[in-house]
């Protein structure tokens, strides 16, 4: 039987699912401290404390690794905005409020660890990093027009947490530094557990109000943007990261979107009304287009890299 729950009704029906998944998360999550992932013996004072200020020659990271690390860190830095947006769409008490607090506390560790690593190892310009942080957090993030409510938010954070996990893991691999790779593996493991929490709650939303859930998923997939969009140098840095496989269309489709849709059994469900079927058809058409776009993108990237290799040779 078709349902069309209000946001409050949906929040209330999902609360037991949220509570159960908090218990599952707490039983699974590993406690860790950011300071255990930073090579403190490499640190030294900057000029304000009688030492030496940063110089580009001090960094051991490649340009791609630096760009990816900065982008990932600034993304994590915007946690106050994410907390606000989630609080606006979820409840601030009960199981929902408990989860928001726990999620925020865990996410905050990511920025602490990454910044301490970058500053301690002098991997990036700390002044430029702070200037970019000020700009990015001042801008904040805001819910796009037409986007809001429980299902929209749950669907978005499910895909976003998994996308962030992929980005952290590939960044760790290009850093060519076992310390950075270990730290980013730890952070990526957190992101994966967060994704599982949201994915489970969204799965329950499909069972409770399938039409509303598929409409949200379709809208989110068609309009998905990483939460770092809009940060300083976003376009330039994004192009470089895509070009070198930190996070590209193939990863987005094959490692993020499709695995989640399969878990939700989106294309196997038989509980949609005509309204839900229209949305699912729209999603299928978009995914077909995205698959074609992936092939075109990869062919274009291959040509660009070949031309660059020829020039270097």
UniProtKB/TrEMBL annotation:
<keyword id="KW-0276">Fatty acid metabolism</keyword>
<keyword id="KW-0443">Lipid metabolism</keyword>
<keyword id="KW-0408">Iron</keyword>
<keyword id="KW-0444">Lipid biosynthesis</keyword>
<dbReference type="InterPro" id="IPR009078">
    <property type="entry name" value="Ferritin-like_SF"/>
</dbReference>
<feature type="binding site">
    <location>
        <position position="107"/>
    </location>
    <ligand>
        <name>Fe cation 1</name>
    </ligand>
</feature>
<dbReference type="GO" id="GO:0005829">
    <property type="term" value="C:cytosol"/>
</dbReference>
<dbReference type="GO" id="GO:0046872">
    <property type="term" value="F:metal ion binding"/>
</dbReference>
<protein>
    <submittedName>
        <fullName>Acyl-[acyl-carrier-protein] desaturase</fullName>
    </submittedName>
</protein>
<feature type="binding site">
    <location>
        <position position="194"/>
    </location>
    <ligand>
        <name>Fe cation 2</name>
    </ligand>
</feature>
<dbReference type="InterPro" id="IPR012348">
    <property type="entry name" value="RNR-like"/>
</dbReference>
<feature type="binding site">
    <location>
        <position position="191"/>
    </location>
    <ligand>
        <name>Fe cation 1</name>
    </ligand>
</feature>
<feature type="binding site">
    <location>
        <position position="161"/>
    </location>
    <ligand>
        <name>Fe cation 2</name>
    </ligand>
</feature>
<dbReference type="Pfam" id="PF03405">
    <property type="entry name" value="FA_desaturase_2"/>
</dbReference>
<feature type="binding site">
    <location>
        <position position="191"/>
    </location>
    <ligand>
        <name>Fe cation 2</name>
    </ligand>
</feature>
<feature type="binding site">
    <location>
        <position position="110"/>
    </location>
    <ligand>
        <name>Fe cation 1</name>
    </ligand>
</feature>
<keyword id="KW-0479">Metal-binding</keyword>
<feature type="binding site">
    <location>
        <position position="107"/>
    </location>
    <ligand>
        <name>Fe cation 2</name>
    </ligand>
</feature>
<feature type="binding site">
    <location>
        <position position="76"/>
    </location>
    <ligand>
        <name>Fe cation 1</name>
    </ligand>
</feature>
<dbReference type="InterPro" id="IPR005067">
    <property type="entry name" value="Fatty_acid_desaturase-2"/>
</dbReference>
<keyword id="KW-0275">Fatty acid biosynthesis</keyword>
<dbReference type="GO" id="GO:0045300">
    <property type="term" value="F:stearoyl-[ACP] desaturase activity"/>
</dbReference>
<dbReference type="GO" id="GO:0006633">
    <property type="term" value="P:fatty acid biosynthetic process"/>
</dbReference>
<keyword id="KW-0560">Oxidoreductase</keyword>
<comment type="similarity">
    <text>Belongs to the fatty acid desaturase type 2 family.</text>
</comment>
<comment type="subunit">
    <text>Homodimer.</text>
</comment>
